[in-house]
Amino acid sequence: MAGKKINKILVANRGEIALRLIRTIRELGLGAVAVYENPDKEALFIRSADDAIMIGDGPRKDYLDIDRMIWAARKSGADAVHPGYGFLAENPDFSSACEKADITFIGPPPDVIHNLGNKIVARGIMEKAGIPVIPGTGNLSREEDGIRKATDFGRKYGYPLMLKASSGGGGRGIRKIENEDELLIQMPLSRSEALQAFNDDNIYIEKCIENPRHVEIQILADHHGKIIHLGSRDCSIQRRHQKLIEIAPADLPVDVLKSMYETAILAARESGYINAGTVEFLVDPDTNEFWFMEINTRLQVEHTVTEMLSGVDIVREQIMIAEGKRLKIPEVWVRLPGKAIQVRINAENPRNDFMPEGGKRVEVYQSPGGPGIRLDGMVYQGYKIPTEYDSLLVKMMVRGYNWEQAIQRLKRALNDFLICGPETTIPFYLAICDEPDFRKGKFDTSYLDTHPEVFNYPENKREVAKLSQLIAEIHAKKTNPYAY
Questions:
Q1: pLDDT bucket at 240, cuts 50 / 70 / 90
Q2: Beta pairing partners, 136
Q3: CA angle 40, 45, 51 (to 5 degrees)
Q4: Which residues carry out catalysis?
Q5: What is the number of domains present in the chain?
Q6: What secondary structure letter does DSSP report for 234?
């Protein structure tokens, strides 16, 4: 549904992204409605909204409940819904339910979400358009025929292979398979995992591109046939297929980037795309050959690093598009001067396999500032980190005139950032800032495996952190526990 003036938007999400959406909604002079589960009752995004509706005890299940979201929208008088990322953002049934309820869904139409959410259907659309895709199978049947097709594919293309959930996304439902014996063991396990995560046990296989770069193109498409790109992002530094550091733009030759931009716009056009989306590619680091991987039919976590360079508020454009307005972004905005880096500051212990630190309280929170720095977060001093949700605390973006300055600025900002209480990824990122290959811009998806030394960072117990913690304790208890 498009063309209807929006007055009030229900944010069907939580945490950092809910707060980020609310800021733009209020900047536009529109009403912002937050929804929350009981574990989020102390969250910052609730305080920032014009209205807040508790949708259940949770955890997670109420954020995934389409009927509850439609009920909350009606109760609050919201005439539009923004799903953010995760939860219901890529659920075509949610987009369809909003349409049936005469509520504007700020995202793609249901059929586009459905088609691109199924990786097999998406591959078919791209193949028909002549877009290069990684060799792969269709959905593998549960019978002997599916096993035979899988083993035949492995013998033809060789190992390793990637076993994937057809409805997967966000790095979930992916397994690297090294040999045929492992393939036979993992296929039923992968089906079970896919059914639990996506309510769909279809799986397929792709040839594994060894140690590629993961590069994506941000696109915007309106209802009038105009599609533009906002440049590229390199998201190669990942753990368990989930991104940690994102860099804009990707460091690729101009002609390669131009070809990727054209391919991304073609992919969006062929799939009937509308609103904001991301076309993802794998790139051979030696030859710069690239292959289509998927289109994410939502706002991505890392959209902010693109906003740092382009000056475009992507959420604002999403709302304008949903109202049926034409894209009016001058091409001069998409020249993307300089370099921007985003790091996801998570409450995790990188040395312990990135174990989440949920349940701990943030005793000291002092954020950095200065030129070229942006923070999108939900944490504050005294905030107790829920155990029920993801571990993301803050996204920090820095921008420099070039790669060297961007790293210098990132390092300075990380050193100025104090979060006491939980373990975080801050000292881990500081170690990466000093790693020679990173400083040269040499990294791919195997970076963490091939650079184990970045986990050997010193304990982050600086004297200023200890002093800040003591000051906070004095303020809280109205007395100095160490005074005689």
A1: confident
A2: 206
A3: 95
A4: 298
A5: 3
A6: E
Residue 427, amino acid: P
Residue 143: φ, ψ to 5° = -90, -175
Mean per-residue pLDDT, 25-41: 97
**Domain presence at residue 239:** yes
* Those residues with Cβ within 8 angstroms of residue 385's Cβ, 6 or more apart along the chain or in another chain: 347, 357, 358, 359, 360, 361, 362, 379, 391, 393, 422
Pair (189, 58) in one structural domain: no
| 206 DSSP β-pair partners | 136, 162
Label residue 300 exposed, middle or buried (CB < 10 Å: 0-12, 13-18, 19+): buried
330 contacts: CB under 8 Å, gap ≥ 6: none
Q: What angle do CA 173, 178, 181 make, to 5 degrees?
A: 95
- Residues 142 and 59 placed together within one structural domain of the fold: no
Same domain, 322 and 448: yes
Contact 427, 457 (CB under 8 A): yes
Instruction: Give me 139's structure tokens.
Output: 């959905």
Looking at residue 338, the DSSP 8-state letter turns out to be: S
Name the pTM for this structure.
0.90
**Cα distances (Å, whole numbers) of residue 295 to 30, 112, 122, 396:** 29, 10, 8, 25
Give CA–CA dist 90/85, Å, rounded.
8
Give the whole-angstrom CA distance, residue 456 versus residue 71.
50
- Does residue 123 sit within a domain? no
Range of the domain at 157: 135-207
Look up the CATH number of the domain holding residue 433.
Answer: 3.30.470.20
Could you read off the pLDDT of 38-74 as tens digits, one per residue?
999 999 999 999 999 999 999 999 999 999 999 999 9
Report the distance separating Cα 418 and Cα 322, nearest Å.
39
Chain mean pLDDT for the chain: 93
